[in-house]
Amino acid sequence: MYEFVRKSDPELAAVLTAELARQRGQLEMIASENFTSSAVLETLGSTLTNKYAEGYPNKRYYGGCVHVDEAETLAKRRACALFDAERANVQPHSGSTANMTAYLAFCKPGEKILGLSLSHGGHLTHGHPVNFSGLFFEAVHYEVDPQTETIDYDRLRDQARREKPRILVGGASAYPRFWDYAALREIADEVGAVFIFDMAHIAGLVAGGVHPSPIPYADVVTSTTHKTLRGPRGGLILCRKQHLKAINKMNFPGIQGGPLMHVIAAKAVCFHECLQDDFSDYARRVVANGKALADALLARGFRLVSGGTDNHLLLVNVKPKGLTGKEMEALLERVGITCNKNTVPFDEESPFVTSGIRLGTPALTTRGMGPAQMDQIAAIIDEAVQHRGDEDALEKLRGVSVELCADHPLYPEF
Ligand code: DSN
After folding, report:
1. Would you state the CATH architecture of domain 280-407?
2. Nearest atom, ligand 1, residue 124 CA
3. Active-site residue 198, yes or no?
4. How many C-beta atoms lie closer than 10 Å to residue 212's C-beta?
5. Are strands 59-60 and 356-360 parallel, antiparallel or unpaired?
6. Could you name the CATH architecture of 41-274?
């Protein structure tokens, strides 16, 4: 691997090699990460990166676009087939520009958007004040119910009636439960809002048929392609036929310039992989592992936000164990588990400290791990908490993580 970089730039090649070793040797539990196939990696490294192709297939501002047109057309066709969507725009560089495109296609700067608060599981681009979505628009937020830690749709309806947003945003980056799309659709219709659903986290589960789909309900669905979908880092927009013109115009020339054609081609490869029979099995195993991990942690006395999970992630409130999220993230890193600290609903700690961690199963499932390994991992987590401060015990636990990784090789072909 990396034979050309090794010859031309040994210094950078060492970085690439070290990162591959890190990915191979750690238990990757960041809920938004995954390991792409070698076919996706190869396509990302293809000569399509050399090509300028501003515009859309058959309507470009540059010559020589015949083959990138074919790649983009394949990506769009496959995205629509995968999600049973009417139309797709596969050009967003990221989930963030996908959301910016969707908002600005329907909403003028200064108008109101209503999304789930970041500290209750939402996302920066759903109206956080430091983000474009909070800077460009008047953003208001809904929260989860303090008792159930899930969305109370009746309360959301009352809030929407009061606020009358131009856009109602659904979707999250740390919400472990199913969404009631029908309720969101009804609320949007009642207050005359456009309903945009950001399915970035759950897209692979939707594609695999193990999570309800927002497509029949939302006016526009945005996503990334690198989380549960297991494709290249990038964004995606799916919409009804009547909205495509506005979406396309806003993404280019409204927001982006030349599309990343190597990434778009890699999205086509990803969608093709997701259309194969074995992808549903992968999605099913991601969710089964989420439930197995939740059960194993609950059995060891951990407190899970909302009491469990319907999808690929869980939020663990580690305060009852006497730790902050920041401390827990560092402790798990010490024993070979990568995760991220995360606020829990009504958190009294700052976002840099937090009271929780977010754990996800997509990457471990890609490595072939199953419920038995989830139980072993819950045991490592529990032991680490019990023996924090005991370097020998932590080193032994790190050894268990390394063994688990060795038993489930990553990129053995490299
Ligand atoms: N940063 C991503 C996540 O970790 O959920 C969302 O964009």
Report:
1. Alpha-Beta Complex (3.90)
2. 7
3. yes
4. 17
5. unpaired
6. 3-Layer(aba) Sandwich (3.40)
